[in-house]
Structures are given as C-alpha cells and as structure tokens.
Amino acid sequence: MAGILVDVLLERLATLALDKVERELKLVRGVKQEIKNLTKKLKAIRAVLEDAEQRQVMEASVKDWLNELNDVSDDMDDVLDEWITRVLMHQLEKQEKQGANALATTKKKVCFPFPSSCFRFGQVNQLFRRHEIAAKIKELNESLDLIDQNKQSFGFHQNTTRVPELPQRQKTTSLPNIKTFGRDKEKNLIVSKLISESSQEKEVPLIIPIVGMGGMGKTTLAQLVYNDENVKSHFDKRIWVCVSDPFEEIKIAQAIIEEIDKDNSSKSSNVLQTLTQCIDKLIEGKKFLLVLDDVWSPNSDQWEELIKPLRNGGIGSRILVTTRKEEVVTLMKATTQLIHLKELGEAFCLSLFYYSADMDESSVSTEFKNIGSEIVKRCNGLPLAAKTLGSLMRNKKKIHEWQAVLKSKTWELKEIQQDVFRPLLLSYHDLSPATKRCLLYCVTFPKDYVYNRNCLIELWMSQDYLNVKESKEKIVVGQNYFDDLVMRSFFQDIEDVQFEYGNIKCKIHDIVHDFLQYLTENECLILDFELDASKRRDLSKDKVHHLTLVHATEGDSLQTFLPNYKKLRTLIAIQSSEYSIGPIFELIVQLKCLRTLDLRGWRGKGCLKEIRETIGGLIHLRYLDLSENLGLEELPSALGSLYNLQTLRLVRCVNLKKVDVRRLINLRHLYVEGCWELKLIEGIEKLTDLQRLDQFVVPIIGGDEGNKLEHLKDLNQLQGSLAIRILGNPNMAENAAAIMVNKAHLLELRLEFYSVDEGKHGEIMNGLEPHPDLESLYIWFYKGGAFSHWLSYLHSLRMLILETCTKCGVLPPLGKLASLESLHIVQLHGVSKVGVEFLGIDDGQTSSSSSIFISFPKLKQLGFYNMGPWEEWVGVENNNITIMPCLSQLTIGYCYKLKALPDFLWETPLQKLHIFRSPILQDLYRQGIGEKWAKIPTIVIED
C-alpha cells in the first residue's frame, strides 16, 4: 500500500524541517536540497496513487511500478526514521546536561539519562552518522527519480480532491446484529435431525455434516441452529469448537474439555490419551451436541482417536460438522445425514443485500431496485458476496454511484478464480488508503485467529498506518477504521472482551482471509512448522515485511533462515508454548527494521529468561509483546534506548520484579496484568501521556521500593480499564482526592483491597473518587463500614459490582444512579436488610412527598449472590415513586435467609427470574401461580 507509506514519508520529511532537526541538517552539505526534492516528488506521486492502485489489479506493469515504489518508500522510511530518532535522542541528552530545570520545561518533562558517548557526533563507528544517512538519502532520491519518471508513461489520473480523514467518532454502545435470510428450511431440517430420537437409534453420536463452498453461510447456519431454544433445552451439554486447517486432534480435544469444564486441569495436557480419557468421563451418559466448525482434512487415524471417547455420550448425542469437502463426510461415515448447502435464491440474496445496505427493501425506488437486482445477480447466490456488496452500498446514496459499481471493470477480471473475490474487491477499493492498509495487515495472523480490537489498533499504530500527529487521536482514528471494516462485513463474530470494558474481539471469514492473502502476495508470510515443508509458502525473503512463526522450534533451524529476512517490520511467534526459544533472540536483534515484535508465551526448558542489552539496537521498534514469558525476571536497561516504543505488553510475566519506564517517553500503552511480583513501575509518574494501563499494584513495602497511589495523579490521559490493587497501607497525601477524579477518559475502574488495615479502607476509598463520567466500577474486598459518598454521584455509571465488602451493613443509595444498567452485589455479609436507602429514596419521600422520583431508572440486570445474613428486602408505598421501570432480569443465589421479594418487583417489566440455593424463597415461590407470575416469561427456581 504505497499511499499510506507516502503519507508517512511526507510527515517524516516535515519533521526534518523542525528547528531542532534542521540545525543538524545544516551540518551536512546538500542534504536540505535533497529533502526538498524528495518532498516534491512524493507529492507528485501521491496525486496519482488512487488511480494506480485501482489499475494494478488489471495491469501488471502498474503493479510492478507500485511494488518498486513500496520498496523505495520502505527503505526511505527506515533512513528518515533513524535520522529523526537519533537527532531527538541527541537533543534530549543535551537538555539533560543543561540541568534538570531546563529539562523540566520541555514538552515531555522526562529525564533521559543516556551515556553521552552513544550520540556524540563525528566519532567513528557511532550509531549516529550524519554523512552516512545523508548518502543514503541521496541514493534513495535517485531511485525515486526513476520511479517518478516512469509514472509518466501510465497516464495516471490525478486525484486533486483528497479529503483528510477526521478523528471524530460517534460513541456507540453496540454493533450490528447477525440476521439470516433464506435458510429456514435448512435450519428446520437440521434442528429436527438434532432433537428427534428413535428407539432404534444405534449411532452414538450421530454425525450431521453441512457441506458447501466458502462464503455459502455454513458457520452462520450452524450458529443459528446451535442457539435455537429447542436445541438449547434438548441437550445436557453443548460444545462449539472451531477446527480449521490443519486438523489437530490434541487441540480439538483440549477445546472440548475447556467448553465442558473450564476449570478442568486436564485441558492443559498435550497427551492425547489423557485428554480422551478426560472427555470420556465428562460426557459419560450425557446427551451432548458438539459442533465441529470448518473441518478440512483429518486422516482416518486422527478421526478415530477423536471420536472414540465421544461414543460414550448418552443416546441422542449429535455432532454437527461444517466443511467444504465431501471427502470429510465420507471419512466420517456420515453420507446418509449430509446437508448440502446450496446457493441462496435471488430474492433472499436481494433481501440480504438491502439489509446489509441498511435500506428498507419495500421502499427502494424502481431505479435503485433495477440496478440493485443486476448487482445481486453477480453474487451467484453467495451470501457472503451479497452481504459484502450490501455493506459497500451503505454510504452510496446517489444513482450514479450504484451505476459505477455495476459497470466496474472488476467484474471482468478472469484471473480471480473465486467468484466471491470480485465483490470483495469492489468493497475493498471503496475503502480509504489507510483503512485498506489496516485491513491487509490482518493477514499477518493465521486463519481463525481471534483479533482483539485494542491490540489491533496498537499494531496499526506501530506500523504508522494511523497517520495522525496526536497519538491520542490515533486511537480514535483506529476505532473509526475498525468500525468501518465491521460495517463493511470484513470482520465477523463480534463479541465483548471480558474485563476490558469497551473492547471487543472478532474474526475474519476464511474467504476474506484468502482474499487478503491474494492482495498482499509476497508481503506477509505465515510459516507453520507443523505442516510439511512442501505445504509451506516460500516467498522471496527481500519482499517479506511481516513474518509469523507458528509452532516454531529450536530444531527448525531458525538461525539458518531468520537472518535472511532483512526487511522485516513485523515478527510474531505464536503457539510455541511447548518449544525452546533457543538462539532466536540473538537473531532477532539483527533485524534492524522491526517495528513490531511479539514473543509471547515461550515456555519449557528453553524459555525466554532474559532480554539482552542488544535489544537497544532496534531503534524503530514501536510494539513489544513479551507476555506470558514465565521465566522472565527483569528487563535490561537498554530497553530505555527504545525511544519510539509505544506499546509494551508484559501480561502474566509472573516472575517479573521491576520495570523501568523513565526513558520510554513515547510509551502510550503499558500492560502488566498478572505480573504478581511486579511491585515497582519506575518512572511511571513521568509518563503523563500514557493512555492505557491495565493494572497498578500498591505493594505492602513502603518507601521508594514500590508504587504509590500518588504516582497516578498526573496520568490524566488514561483510557479504557484500570485495576488498582492495594496490598498494603498507602499514605494518603493531602491532595489524594485528585488522584483519580481528573481522569475523564477512563471508562472502567476496579478497586481491590488486600491486606489493608480495616481503619484505612474508608480513607483510601474517599481518596480514589473517580471522574463522574466513569461507566463501569468494580469494588472488591472493601472493609469500610460504609461506602464513600461519591458512589451515588456517578451519573454515567452503567455497570457496578460490589463483592466481598463484608463490613458494610447498609447498601449505598444506588437508586440515584441515573445511567446504571447492570448491578451485582456479592458476599456483603454485613447486610441483613435492604430497604428504601438502597432505592435512593430520602426519608421525606417515603410517604407524604408529592414530587415524582424514579429509582434505578435504567436498571436492566440485578443480581444478589451469597448474601448469607440477608433476611428482609422491603420497598416503599408511594404512587409518586417509580422503581426499576426497565428491569428485565433478576438473579438471587445463595441467599439462605431471605424471606420474600418486595411487592414492587411485580410491577417491573421483569422477563427472567432466577432463584437458586435460596431455600426459603424456593419453597415460597416454587408453585408460583397467579397473575403476577404469569407476566414473567421465564422463571427458573432450582436447588
């Protein structure tokens, strides 16, 4: 994607014109003129790139020209980025020498204690070499001159109406729901096969395959069946496993155990016999439904080993399989139950098309309807194609825009083998250049990879795909790009990420993944070392920029081939937990162009136990993930040399003792959740531009040996979720109230109290008052006698959990919270009565007041759990008071002494009532009859 690269280069060149950089330019003869020439040529090239990128699919010569431009642009980016980095680091060193007072006036206000010898100009063999870099710029300028001249021969049209992409983003709370068209017949047939039982049935489990080409909607149909209410109630256990290629029986067995019993320790075994024995016990006599989605090519031995324990299930057990290959059905001996998924009828395709375009089919004008029908005919009955084209038309409101899609030359392409690629290509070309690049980067990961939106945005940032100067706006721009890709159906299976408020995860359809591989060709390479060497893609090493190693081992001779990928910008190693990292790290530091390095989860005898000082040579690095390296105890001081580092992930590095971030002045995202031994993040108080911090531990130790709550005071740009875990007795400063109250961008806060003197809890809680815009709050192990007053003034709070707050005898007035939608109260053993104070009703409102008051105006979900001493729950009788007018779900569990529910509950729009392990309530309501019970659609009362 030359377009985004050229934009990045122009920004780099603009940076060279800044005063503090320009002074260095004057020391090299002729370089200022070279910079001007570069800028002029790049602007001229940028003006024709939109036309060039459209034409490259059909014109090989244009594609070659763009590839040459990409190569030169990458080299130029490396040179300019190195120069800018060295200059700015040198400036910081000089500022430090001038004294702390001078340094404090700089924008970053950060001490940057590099040895002065590292950046002294004019010395031989030093990192910073003005003349060497200037010579590279001159050489690249000559190469760009040839490219600029060659562009004249293509007669490109100039784009003179470039519209800058704005960072504004409308806040959303949900994403589009999945809806299906034209599959009712198939769904009903499959459901009947799943739930029908015969006394003559001998096959356990019965295997039902759904077969169809890619993009036909097999997975969507399976999901529809899997979530059918009749199916849900029919089976004791339902299990969903995404299989994909290759067929790995050990991983499938692990996934089955995980779905049945998440806490089962056997799921971590890599011995197939151990896993199958566990499955055998877990499903013995139980009627189960197992969905094996996207099965490709198991051999008969693999299948027999997997099916063996599943035969121990109860009568009526079923396995639903989705696959593109009928050979799989034959191998499974399931040909008699085969469901062959055919193309959608044109009418259903048209309905899906209009639905995806966010249009009411019945009100579409004749002119648009005629063109829409012609476009849908090109889908050949493929749901994915209809959905993609519909998403493409969502923002096209003029008839000429629809005509342009219908008449596009893309439909004429012969070399694209898969029909679905053509509509995908139309939708792809409608994206902005930067969004295209972000989408293409996703193919760095293998099929069926689960993408995390926040992580993906940070990866895009590391590659400079979010071309905005202000880093806080880059997150917003990244969210815009992500949402755009969702709306255009490039992402699917959208779900919220647990314990990361506002974050979501998703997948990419296999066909879309194939399409992206088709577009990226040689740029991205995934090497799976469990595949035969003959099945691995072998690309030109000079062309590969993004390399992913899957199941890599020391025996795979990484040291032989890895150094050959000199131009790598991304290196990711995944699913390598059982293998040795061996000499890989010393090889990695030779890859000087790296922007992104992901080495999470290396374990075993050769796990990553230390990071060498040589990591300081990776000066371009923006993203570093060392998560789940259990042997890692410390990080080298050279980490501070990574001036450009934006994201540092250290999640579940359980033995890591200390992290020094004083020098990482561009760090914006720091993840340390699960680093239980990490008591000090040195210098974190200086990172006032930090945007994400997932966990902050205040240790028992005092003095300068650990984090202090006051270190958070100036980190007012924090976003997303933050967990504060207090392990000792922090001294609350006089200005403690300002610690959290100014963090207007923080959405979720978790406060956890461990080993704190009970007399200190209230003081600490009062000092941690959050900003009133907070949307989600969790409080654990709080032992103050009452909750802080600020809890009832969080007007934007949507979710609240109070857990194990054992000394609180009275619930706070939560009914005053105007936005609260979900409330869960767990183990508040000091509460014996819940009364009007909980509803937020003042004494004067309980009887005589004539003013109208709504208690819990938006509450939808309410749960009380393990409230042992709780005996009484009362309401209030006042016609001017409305209580919980939106309540849809109430859950009460382990409330052994609660005698009855308040009368006001029967006036709420309750849809589901679930009572368990609460014997008095169970006896009282088990035979629930009458008008008030009839209004509740779902009532579950169980032991």
TrEMBL record:
Molecular function GO labels: ADP binding; ATP binding; hydrolase activity
Domain Disease resistance N-terminal: 6-96
The R13L1/DRL21-like LRR repeat region domain, residue ranges: 709-827
GO biological process: defense response; response to other organism
Name the UniProt record assigns to this protein: Putative P-loop containing nucleoside triphosphate hydrolase, leucine-rich repeat domain, L
The organism's place on the tree of life at top rank: Eukaryota
Residue ranges constituting the Disease resistance protein winged helix domain according to the UniProt record: 445-515
Keywords: ATP-binding, Coiled coil, Hydrolase, Leucine-rich repeat, Nucleotide-binding, Plant defense, Repeat
The NB-ARC domain, residue ranges: 188-356
UniProt-listed InterPro entries: Apaf_helical, LRR_dom_sf, LRR_R13L1-DRL21, NB-ARC, P-loop_NTPase, RX-like_CC, Rx_N, WH-like_DNA-bd_sf
Residues in coiled coil: 18-82
